[in-house]
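Hello,

Following up on my earlier ticket. Below are the two sequence lines again, exactly as submitted.
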Amino acid sequence: MAEKNHLGKVKAGKDVIFLNIIAYGFCSIIALLCLIPFIMILSGSFSSESAIIANGFSILPQDFSLEAYKTVFKEPITIVRAYATTIILTAVGTVVGLLIQTMTAYVLARKDFEWRNGFSFFFYFTTLFSGGLVPTFILYTRTLGLKDSYLALLLPLTFSVYNLLVMKSYITSIPDSLIDAAKIDGCGEVGTLFKVVMPLIKPALATVGLFIALAYWNDWYNAMLYINSEEKYPLQYFLYQQVNNIEAYKKLIANATVSSSVVSALSLPTQTLKMALTIVVTGPIILAFPFVQKYFVQGITIGAVKG
Amino acid sequence: MKEQTKFRRFLKKLYKYRVYLLMLAPAVIYTLVFAYYPMTGVVMAFKKYNYQGGIWGSPWNGIENFKFFFKSGQAALVIRNTVLYNILFIVVGTATQIAVAVFLTEIRNKRFRKVSQSMMFLPYFISWVIVGVMAFNIFSSDYGFINRILVSMGFEKFAFYKEPAAWPFILLFFNIWKGVVYGSVMYMAAIMGVDTSIYEAAAIDGANVFQRIFKVTIPSIMPTVIILFLMSIGGIFKGNFDMFYNLVGSNGLLYNATDVIDTLAFRALISSNDFGMSAAIGLFQSVLCFITVLLANKLVSLYDKDYTLF
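Thanks for your patience. The regenerated structure is below:
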């Protein structure tokens, strides 16, 4: 009972003990339920195919085997290519998106800009009404001719009104006097934004940047709509395709194997291969997340305040 | 004469704001092209689309597309599914998130709070594609974890992927699973905002922890709860395409229980190439969403003026 939280000290009566049992129990169950599906994929990827076929998936690995990973890395080119596509898209998209969102939020937060409410509504209205799937689909495929182009993966996620609002609420919290001082010192608007505002909103840049990056990293939908060529698939859609057409993926691996031994697609694992591929695709983001979690907490909290 | 001065004043402002406007330009152009221009494309809902004609050259066919959508019997089904799923998700999801937020703030062990929250963050970071793989691990007939347990306990296997009745529960589970951290972080922020002197006063008055939760914490975060609730009501006609598509996919056996407006509009476009009907479904949904958002916002403003969005 030594540790304090913001609720202050409470005498440790029966009610406290009872509450502790419920609170620890409930949170543990929810946390474990969140974790277990990940453990199952990991265990499946380290199990032998025959054990999975005989018993089904389990929480712990059965008949430990690296066969599935060996199979995945027999044909690493397609995975590396999907990774490269996603990494480049995420990097370019995040930088461009962050730049546009920051510039826009900065202007909309300027009180000396009389038209700021009009422009705010101009952006906000698009969250109320949208043309829907078909007009957007035709815009990308016909009007702009972006079928099978990387731009069709880049453009849909660069700008979002939600991120704009988060950014604006950060920038609004900067005291006007700082910005006025910069202007008196002879900074132009662009100089003020980059030299004064940007350094002050580093947490905002991290938060909004991570929101944008996560959206790019997890995007499969735009690839499904607009991308035909397999070599242009981003990571998540690559995974979607291989898991749902695992037999075709096995053939691809079998054909790509140049070793002297004849590899037949039939001899390759199926279920464990899906798991290993999922791990290879998910691993990095899961390993990176503890370092960035606090920025997401910040972003979500700001979202709660702003709506 | 007056018009002219007005116009000149406008030009003057245009010049005065030239840097601001230049900085806004990318976002404005983007929004015009990718948000406002597609809005004009809703006319397709009233056209018989053909490839040569495109959006503007295809012949009109009145409300045929809507008639087809409503007469096919699918309209009632997908609207019902969309609304019922959303109500289920909002009610159970909100309750779970509040419970997690309240319990986590009551827990004094900092490490436990941190670790359990990190675990709850895991689902938030992954794509629905991966959730689809997980669902298969747990529910598949041949290899699924649940069927493995059923068999080991001497029961028959249960074919989840052929049984529509199971899917409201499966979808509810994964919806809560993926969103629990987001909601609970928001409610925790609200709880942290509660004036600590109220807690001190409650302690002096001899309130036990349960009274403290139900008489102080929950009433204090009620404004946040109600506002977030009304906002989610605004999206009640929007189906989460990502989730439904990755968990159910093109499994026709389950459509009666799982088809929502968004998945039907998608299939009409991609599988049947019926641009007109898909556009009609999309327009119908956009209009419903527009009306419900306005209504929800009206309700928020009646509840508390400070929280209205516009």
